[in-house]
């Protein structure tokens, strides 16, 4: 939607990357920073309150928290890390899934309406300072320094000459690209999804209030697409939280595995 120019001297300027650079609310504190803190409070309160009085026959809150825990424990951690090693990492995987999910959903919550991870710094920090150190630490701890480097960069069974090409690629992937791609996936999905919603919503408002003649009814179409994309975005938000947790667990499992 390039430049919808029209009537009454008004020009439609579509939303862009600049709309994600929110001004500070006070001091140097911005809305995304507040949302990150709020997400931690919400997650902690949810798990503490829901698990405060556990019963054999669970209520709605206990059922919800048990379902999420079981999903993170058995559906992600056990599957990706393996039944032998997964238990110590269940809290981490549960925390990652919950944190990414809540911060993604913020994009659809009235008033808040901003997916925190659409600011690249947040998923990058989560990847570089949480996931990346954990899976390399457990890899070095299990295999030793030289053993882990060999485990991570020298796949067995390849011809000797191939290793001159394969080993640098494996090193680049394991030690440089993995944390970047982990962060980029969720960032790109949240940024693009929120931008699409902005475009259709703002375009609908512009067409209704500023366009004339046959353009006004098109505002209904624009808002209809905004509603449709809201449901699609909700699905993507959940999927991206799942993907982030699955890949994090997969990296840990690969670092711990005996085989490459």
TrEMBL record:
GO terms for molecular function: proton-transporting ATP synthase activity, rotational mechanism. The keyword DNA damage does not apply. It comes from Amycolatopsis sacchari. It is a multi-pass membrane protein. The gene is atpB. The chain crosses the membrane at residues 32-50, 89-114, 120-138, 145-166, 186-208, 220-243. Belongs to the ATPase A chain family. Gene3D superfamilies: ATP synthase, F0 complex, subunit A (1.20.120.220). This is ATP synthase subunit a. It comes from the Bacteria. Keywords: ATP synthesis, Cell membrane, CF(0), Hydrogen ion transport, Ion transport, Membrane, Transmembrane, Transmembrane helix, Transport. It is found in: Cell membrane; Membrane.
């Amino acid at each position: 939607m390039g430049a919808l120019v029209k009537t009454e001297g008004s020009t439609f300027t579509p939303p862009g990357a600049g709309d994600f650079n929110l001004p500070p609310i006070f001091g140097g504190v911005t809305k995304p920073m507040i949302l990150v803190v709020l997400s931690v409070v919400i997650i902690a309160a949810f798990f503490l309150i829901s698990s405060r009085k556990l019963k054999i026959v669970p209520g709605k809150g206990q059922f919800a928290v048990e379902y999420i825990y079981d999903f993170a424990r058995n559906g992600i951690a056990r599957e990706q890390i393996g039944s032998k090693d997964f238990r110590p990492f269940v809290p981490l995987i549960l925390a990652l899934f919950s944190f990414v999910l809540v911060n993604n959903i913020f994009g659809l919550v009235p008033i808040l309406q901003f997916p925190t991870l659409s600011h690249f710094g947040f998923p990058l920090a989560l990847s570089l300072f949480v996931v990346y150190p954990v899976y390399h630490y457990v890899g070095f701890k299990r295999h030793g320094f030289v053993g882990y480097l060999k485990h991570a960069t020298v796949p067995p069974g390849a011809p000797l000459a191939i290793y001159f090409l394969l080993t640098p690629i494996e090193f680049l992937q394991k030690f440089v690209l993995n944390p970047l791609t982990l962060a980029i996936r969720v960032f790109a999905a949240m940024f693009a999804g929120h931008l699409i919603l902005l475009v259709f919503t703002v375009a609908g408002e512009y067409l209704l209030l500023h366009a004339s003649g046959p353009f006004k009814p098109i505002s209904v179409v624009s808002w209809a697409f905004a509603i449709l994309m809201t449901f699609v975005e909700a699905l993507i938000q959940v999927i991206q939280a799942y993907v982030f947790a699955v890949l994090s667990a997969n990296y840990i499992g690969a670092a711990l595995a005996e085989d490459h």
